[in-house]
């Protein structure tokens, strides 16, 4: 037994000299002092089978060795720990890792730019509910229930049946639903720019089910088409570039009379006609002079006040900016960093 203890001691010290990391040290500790199957533990367990005289002598030796091994393990542990912390000293000369810098989404950038342009001529930003009553989106805008014009808005319904005097709840299909809400505040004159999310059951290369519109609304005394045209020209030059022009064409909306479709001259061919625009002009969106019935719905006297409104898609406008050639509006919402990082 004495020989065995001696051999164990030699083996232990040979092995511990060779190790260079804490994992190996832990393995040695388990091998020799492990509670279940440690080599020295086994010897200590065998003591009870020895004759009394031998048991005392071997017991003293084995317990002494146990202390020695434990002491050595502590020393080596400390040594390895010190080495590890020294090698982890912070080296100020090592080049740092540059965190990737994000940026605002293209649509957010466009919204901020649009707001800034209109604020310069006295318009204030508004936001009206995305979950809206039918009444604000249709009836108040001169489209009574079952009017065929409503079909154009391909609306998402929240309620199956009317749930009150304002009809069913819907996801607002256009920002025009904010017109009467703004008038209801009773503060005239009005110069609002309402930018909100809109929803329609549409999806293809130029339509997404969730998009943004910005709606200008101006109500004052003696507002004319010339004021509308001036505002459109101003916006087009500020947003698209000083060489671009706006034009209005007759159109039809239930809530404006007269109504127009607004075009912007093509930035690639300067209105001459090219592959991108065909006839030199790109369609921006609708506009018109507010229908007297809409003013009445908002408790504004049409004999005293008049106004204009326009409503355009933020995404569509952004895609028409000079120098951008984004072939599909859906790319704006696919969250593909290879695309978004280019802007
Ligand atoms: C309207 O929504 C009218 N409320 C605009 C208006 C306001 C007219 C005030 C008169 C006075 P329209 O359905 O054409 O009109 O939509 C306006 C613009 O919204 C479109 O030109 C387009 O730029 C954008 N738009 C419409 N549907 C989608 C869609 N699914 N995805 C992306 N953009 C869309």
TrEMBL record:
Residues 114-316 form the Aminoacyl-transfer RNA synthetases class-II family profile domain. One of its GO terms (molecular function) is tRNA binding. It is found in: Cytoplasm. Keywords: Aminoacyl-tRNA synthetase, ATP-binding, Cytoplasm, Ligase, Magnesium, Metal-binding, Nucleotide-binding, Protein biosynthesis. One of its GO terms (biological process) is phenylalanyl-tRNA aminoacylation. GO terms for cellular component: cytoplasm. It comes from the Bacteria. Its main location: cytoplasm. NCBIfam families: pheS. Belongs to the class-II aminoacyl-tRNA synthetase family. Phe-tRNA synthetase alpha subunit type 1 subfamily. Tetramer of two alpha and two beta subunits. This is Phenylalanine--tRNA ligase alpha subunit. It comes from Candidatus Buchananbacteria bacterium RIFCSPHIGHO2_01_FULL_39_14.
């Amino acid at each position: 037994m004495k020989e065995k203890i001696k051999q164990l001691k030699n083996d232990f010290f040979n092995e511990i000299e060779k190790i260079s990391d804490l994992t190996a040290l832990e393995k040695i500790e388990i091998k020799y002092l492990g509670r279940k199957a440690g080599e020295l533990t086994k010897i200590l367990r065998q003591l009870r089978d020895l004759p009394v005289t031998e048991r005392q002598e071997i017991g003293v030796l084995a317990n002494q060795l146990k202390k020695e091994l434990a002491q050595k393990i502590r020393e080596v542990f400390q040594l390895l720990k010190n080495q590890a912390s020294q090698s982890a000293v912070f080296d100020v000369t090592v080049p740092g890792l540059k965190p990737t810098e994000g940026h605002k989404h293209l649509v957010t950038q466009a919204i901020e730019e649009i707001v800034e342009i209109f604020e310069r001529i006295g318009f204030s930003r508004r936001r009206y509910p995305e979950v809206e009553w039918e009444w604000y989106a249709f009836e108040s805008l001169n489209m009574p229930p079952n009017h065929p014009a409503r079909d154009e808005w391909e609306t998402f319904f929240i309620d199956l049946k009317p749930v009150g005097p304002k009809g069913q709840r819907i996801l607002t299909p256009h920002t025009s639903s904010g017109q009467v809400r703004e008038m209801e505040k009773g503060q005239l004159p009005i110069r609002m720019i309402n930018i909100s999310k809109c929803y329609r059951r549409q999806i293809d290369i130029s339509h997404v089910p969730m998009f943004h519109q910005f709606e200008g609304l101006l109500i004052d005394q003696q507002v004319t088409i010339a004021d509308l045209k001036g505002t459109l020209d101003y916006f087009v030059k500020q947003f698209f570039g000083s060489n671009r022009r706006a034009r209005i064409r007759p159109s039809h909306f239930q809530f404006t009379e007269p109504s127009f479709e607004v075009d912007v001259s093509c930035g690639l061919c300067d209105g001459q006609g090219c592959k991108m625009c065909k006839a030199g002009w790109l369609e921006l969106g609708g506009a018109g002079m507010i229908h007297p019935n809409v003013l009445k719905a908002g408790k504004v006297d049409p004999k005293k006040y008049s106004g204009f409104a326009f409503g355009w898609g933020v995404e569509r406008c952004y895609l028409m900016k000079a120098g951008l050639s984004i072939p599909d509006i859906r790319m704006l919402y696919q969250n593909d960093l290879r695309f978004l990082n280019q802007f």
